[in-house]
Amino acid sequence: MKCASRGLDCPGFKTVYLKWDQGIASRGRLAGKSTPIIKGADKRMRNLSSKERNQCKVKDPSRGVRIRDRISGTSDDEQVQTTSIQIAPTAASPMLNPAFYHVEATHVVDPFLQSSIFSSLINHFCTKAVSRLTWIDQPRHPLRTIVRQLLQKSKAVRFSVGCLAAAHMSMVPNIPGNQASALFHIYASLRDESMRTLSAKMRRGLPGRSPETSSASDSPVVIELLATMLVLCYAEVLVPGSKDWRLHLRGCRTIRDLHPLQDWFKESKDPVIRFLLKEISDLEMLTGISMFHQDFTPIRVSPLPSSTDSGWAFTKLIYAITELERERYYIVQAGNTLPSIDMSVWCRRAEEAHNRSLACMDCLCESQQGLRDCFEAVSRAHYFATIIYAYQAFKTPAEKALAVPELLEPLLADIRFVMAGPTDELFHDLFFPLFIAGIECVYDPLRRSEIDGFFIESLSRTGVWCNHSALQFLRSFWSVTSTSEHTVNWMDFARANLSSMEAFIVF
């Protein structure tokens, strides 16, 4: 004000970080009091210690501050609808008049709060969330490097990454309920902003072939769209009860289907686009295990070989079993005779996948022996589970009864070893083995209870809540078939209940 009254340019001041509740009023009726209480504040707050007040932070969506503009930056040229992202106010917030809080304090608090919150979200994404989206983590995982490349260029990617991080942070074990509520609100707000920004870009027209461009896969727009949709899909994978991951996966498929998949990989040498397409293909394969509708069609599998730094050697093998099972089902429906299956071929393929997966341990240092031991157990568990899955898909109950018990015991032993291990870093890798083991334990109530407990613990410790639908299917299967006089194949059970069962992902 002094500069303005003199017609001078104001040089401004360095950032000042305010600390509430540390000043002492020097005059007036509150003189000598270190914590002035505005009239109308909750009287109970006056009698609480500072520690207790911090534990009673209020989650009032109407008392928030903007962080959208700081997250969005200024590098994009598009204009999107402005909304507010509500942040949990500090312990002092209940004592402030809401209107004053918005109008008077925002210009002081916003810049620091916005950058601080978004930095925390990005840090959580890179240090915690990515590790739950890959089989075994390593510093230069492609998902991290892609995010670093795109964060400064794309609003949509920034919003989607913040959305994913907030969703995962809200599900972290032992987080206070009020913080979880605020983080979940941030997730929802950032998700909506990301989708609005994404829609604005798509309304301008999807990239396609034209005389000026030889390959749509070389377009930065394609990378931005696929990266945003993929991150949003992963974000919904972390949210309990959400089915929106399907919506975002369909969006990825829409962009990808602009061209034959082989053309994408032949024409584009960009490692980013190749990684994104491989991730989309893997997600589709993992979803295929629960797809039993008559309109099931084989997906276009990525032509890239399974990668030890970003992929999982068992994914394509599991999908190959799924695809062949569906083909054989239609053969039976047509009244034709099924050709025999040589199980030694599938056992050999499982052994090859197991050996390739062990190469992932190269990124672990020798000091991480506990983690290395757990990963070996995870790989073995997938080996046994994949062979059992093949027996479930291709063999009669009598044939399965002869071979599966000797596979089930070591499978359960490896699951127990990981669950009792020194770290929960690999708990998210156990859902497929747990699902297959749960199917085979249908007539054993003690083992059913054990599998159920492992499922719940893995869900709560990892935050990958999309797998809860697989547990719900297991519980339905157990309740209906555990007392049946005849052995029931879980795939036949799923087909018989298509009207009430939605596709789930074992991720």
TrEMBL record:
InterPro entries: Fun_TF. GO terms for biological process: positive regulation of transcription by RNA polymerase II. Keywords: Nucleus. It is found in: Nucleus. Pfam families: Fungal_trans_2. PANTHER family: TRANSCRIPTIONAL ACTIVATOR PROTEIN UGA3 (PTHR37534), ZN(2)-C6 FUNGAL-TYPE DOMAIN-CONTAINING PROTEIN (PTHR37534:SF38). Its main location: nucleus. One of its GO terms (cellular component) is nucleus. One of its GO terms (molecular function) is transcription cis-regulatory region binding. This is Fungal specific transcription factor domain-containing protein. It comes from the Eukaryota.
